[in-house]
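Lecture notes, structural biology module. Today: joint structure prediction for complexes of two components.
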Amino acid sequence: MELVGYAAAAATPYNLLLALAGVTAGVVLGALPGISSTFAVAVLLPTTFTMEPVSALIFLGAVYTGSTYGGAYSAILVNTPGTPQNIATTFDGYPMARRGDGNLAITLACLASVVGGLVGAVALWAVAPPLARVALAFGPIEYFWLAVLGLTMIASLSEGNLLKGGISGCLGLALSLVGVSVVSGDTRFAFDSPALVGGINLVPAVIGLLCIPVLIDLVAVPQPHLKREGSVGGYRLREALRICRKSWGTLTRGSLIGTGIGVLPAAGGSIASLVAYSETRRASSRPEAFGTGEPEGVLSSESANNATVGGGLIPTFVLGIPGTPADAVILGALLIHGVRTGPSLFTERAPLIYTFIFGLLIATLLMLPVGLLMGRYAYGAIVSISKTFLVPLVAFFTIIGSYAIHNDVNDVVVMLVLGVFGWLIARVGIPAAPMVLGLLLGPIAEQGFGQGVIIGTATGSVWAQFFGRPIALAIIALIVVTLFAPYVLRRYTRRLAA
Amino acid sequence: MSRLADVLMGAVAAGFGGFLMVASRNYTDLGAAFPRAVGLSMIVLGIVLVAGRLIRWSVSTSLPALEGSMVRRALFVVIIAIWGVSLPWLGIVLASVVGIAGLTLVSNFSRWNARRILIHVVGHAAIFAFFYGLLAYGLQVPLPEGRIF
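The predicted structure, tokenised, for the full assembly:
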């Protein structure tokens, strides 16, 4: 009965309006390359100061979930992830758009985001305290192995050439070494350049590696940017629903992976979507289709990144440890409104928390009409727009998106240099995606590794640290299974067929 | 060509891995461990790539064909570089005017006439004004102000 009261409190006209406004603003901001979910939530935080705490939370949660989905627009239509959470969406979303299925890809992304968002929010409602305890059990060693698990994805991003994919992944790891080491304090590979001491920022690097090569090729030929198949106005909702019904396993997997990884502090939506993409490809009966415009690639990535919204709020509420950077801003909002987080939050402030969870569920459902409507216009605009408008506009966002991170022109230079480098290596068959993965996971892997070595040395056994902890062993087992299971299964299937 | 490219790429990767290992000698043990691991991986991958290509020299792999104008590609890179590097001096407005005008010309494949020019000038001005307003005033993103102007 209490739950009905919370649901009714979340569904007041004022809260519904805030949820709608939050989702709309989030989708718009998330679609702009360089404007991350964290930025979107942070920039709209001051507007909530005069609101009731629950209304403020609903608004910020709606912005967060909307921006996570909004990043899919630019990922699908111009190969530039609007937020880092949408990196994996580019792998199949952009090829879909190029062959004329951009509207289908956007509708799939919307449906997957709604499913993922709902699963994450339900997890926040149903299993927050036990999941938060699991997150607490994750130490540096577990993060190290988690990063290694993510790096095994290089195999799935290598477009048929594991060696070249491996080289690309190592280049990404090498890029992540630039700057001051968080483990040892050494300044590495900065070549006495103050611009490099702070390291290579992820956002300019991703924009450079994924977007600039597309623009370089776009200006060289007179053909239009995206293939136009029939009317651009349709949602292709029925087709998308049919694909979703057929791929319910992918949606479930992506949503659960997103929730699970979202619970781990500092792991975030980008890693969740990459891991979900990789696992979906591994589980697929036709893994070779991934990277060429496979709808399941979009479904896995988008369901996972939106599931991290609810998942990331679990440690934020229960432990006071933000699951993602955007959660840190929401944590700040809670403190501003005088709400103290902790294990007792779900009992002492039950009306606030459960009303917010219902509000988040409502905002996620509102994303369906808002996302579909805005996606339709975004697709129509990008397909119809002339190259002489599209190229300068996208270039403007690559420059501002890179610059705005630190207000530093060096980030623009890094973006351009990596963009040209990404184009050059693509000419010799080296994909840029594994490099992005290496850059993303390198710091997590190194920090976990370094801290693990320090703890192991202090306790007298480094090996026991890395191979003696139950969760670490479970992740290692998962790594082994994910690496070798496809080969074993393929051989078994061949033998059966013979 | 692709075979030779593979061999060269493998050699460059192995060489870069060697550089990482040599350079990491200047760092503390903890700071050097990860660069060494990455360097070693690159050396192994590079050698395997070179050896594999030399052993299977007759097997040809196809690389994506290069279509379109290299001059336009080069101009695009130059314009983006000028646009980005000039931001602190010219400021966002003037640098963007130069950049947008340059990229509009580079990405154009149709004949210009007075009507098209007018459409592009008005269209770009409206789009830029909208996003400038959104970023600078709506979102309070600190955009670069020029030192010269």
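Point to remember: Residues 350-384 of chain A form the longest helix (35 residues).
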